[in-house]
TrEMBL record:
SUPFAM superfamilies membership: P-loop containing nucleoside triphosphate hydrolases
InterPro entries assigned to the protein according to its UniProt record, in alphabetical order: AAA+_ATPase, ABC_Ni/Peptide_Import, ABC_transporter-like_ATP-bd, P-loop_NTPase
Limits of the ABC transporter domain: 4-251
Record protein name field: Oligopeptide transport ATP-binding protein OppD
GO molecular function, one term: ATP hydrolysis activity
Length: 272
C-alpha cells in the first residue's frame, strides 16, 4: 500500500526567486525506506519540509504530496499539524539544538508525549522508559534525569529517535541522523534504526549526503542535485548501475574513499 506519494513537487522562494526544489516525484510504500541523497544545499531537507508545511510564508510549494489519499499541500493548518503530531515524525539534523538546554531529557520527553499522545504524565514517563530501552539505552531511568549537555551526541540522537518512535507514527523522517557523530557512534545509531525497521515495520525517509548510510538503511533512493532529482529507483540498482553522471561521481568517490581508508588501516596494522 502506498503511504506517501509526492507528485511534481516544486518549491520557490518568492523573495529571492530562487528555485529551491524542482519537479520532485516519488512513492513510498508502507514499511519501506526511502533515502534522499545529494550534496549540501541540493534541496533534500526542503523537499520534506515543504511537503509538511514547515516553511516560511514567502516560500511557495506546488505539486501534490499525498499522505494516504489526502494532499498535504492543500490541507488546513490544523490537519497538517495533526499529521505532524501523530503520523509523520521528523528527527532533525542537530539533536543538541532540538532539546532545550534548561530542562531534563525526561521532562522534555514527557511534555512531547503528553501533548502528542494525549496521555498523563505518569503514562508518559512509562512510555519514555520503554522507548529509551527500545533504542538500546540500558540506563533509561538515569538518562531521563540528565540535562542535554550531560549526554553524548549519540545518546541525544537516540533520545530523539525514541521520541519520534514513541508516537508510533506511520512515517519517520530522519534528516542527516548520523552527520554530527563520530564513526563508531554512527554505526550504533544505524544499528538502532535497523532494529526499529525490523521490529516496528515503520516507514522511513532518511536524508543524507552519505551513501554508506543510505545503502545500509534504504530500499529505494532519490538522488538530488541543484534542486532537481537526477535519479530514482531501487537503492541496489542505482548504486550498482548508476545512470546519471552525478550519481556515478558519488559512487566512484565513495569507492575511492573506502579503498583509501582500507589501505590506511592496513598500513596502521603493519606498523603496529
Ligand atoms: N528556510 C529557508 N528559507 C529559504 N530558503 C531556504 C531555507 N532553507 C533552505 N533554503 C534554501 O534552499 C536550498 C536547499 O536547502 P536544503 O536545506 O533543502 O538543502 P539540503 O540538500 O538539505 O542540504 P543540507 O544538508 O546542507 O541542509 C538552499 O539553497 C537554501 O539556500
Amino acid at each position: 500500500m502506498v503511504m506517501l506519494e509526492v507528485k511534481n513537487l516544486s518549491i520557490q522562494d518568492t523573495q529571492s526567486n530562487e528555485v529551491i526544489v524542482e519537479d520532485i516525484s516519488f512513492k513510498l510504500e508502507r514499511g519501506r525506506s526511502l533515502g534522499i541523497v545529494g550534496e549540501s544545499g541540493s534541496g533534500k531537507s526542503m523537499t520534506v519540509k515543504g511537503m509538511l508545511g514547515l516553511i516560511a510564508p514567502w516560500i511557495t510549494v506546488s505539486g501534490a504530496a499525498y499522505f494516504e489519499d489526502a494532499d498535504m499541500l492543500r490541507m488546513k493548518t490544523k490537519s497538517i499539524r495533526d499529521i505532524r503530531a501523530r503520523h509523520i515524525s521528523m528527527i532533525l539534523q542537530d539533536a543538541m539544538s532540538a532539546f532545550d538546554s534548561l530542562d531534563t531529557i525526561g521532562k522534555q520527553m514527557q511534555e512531547t508525549l503528553c501533548e502528542n499522545l494525549i496521555i498523563s504524565r505518569t503514562e508518559a514517563k512509562q512510555v519514555s522508559l520503554r522507548e529509551l530501552e527500545r533504542v538500546g539505552i540500558k540506563e533509561a531511568a538515569q538518562v531521563l534525569k540528565k540535562y542535554p549537555h550531560q549526554l553524548s551526541g549519540g545518546m541525544l540522537q537516540r533520545c530523539m529517535i525514541a521520541i519520534a518512535a514513541a508516537v508510533q507514527p506511520d512515517i519517520i523522517i530522519a534528516d542527516e541522523p548520523t552527520t554530527a557523530l563520530d564513526a563508531i557512534t554512527q554505526k550504533e545509531v544505524i544499528a538502532t534504526f535497523q532494529h526499529l525497521q525490523a521490529q516496528s515495520g515503520t516507514t522511513f525517509i532518511f536524508i543524507s549526503h552519505d551513501l554508506g548510510v543510505i545503502q545500509q538503511l534504504t530500499e529505494d533512493v532519490l538522488v538530488m542535485k541543484d534542486a532537481k532529482q537526477v535519479e530514482y529507483g531501487r537503492t541496489e540498482n542505482v548504486f550498482q548501475h548508476p545512470q546519471n553522471e552525478y550519481t556515478k561521481y558519488l559512487v566512484d568517490t565513495r569507492i575511492k574513499l573506502t579503498r583509501a581508508f582500507e589501505q590506511s588501516m592496513r598500513k596502521d596494522s603493519y606498523h603496529a
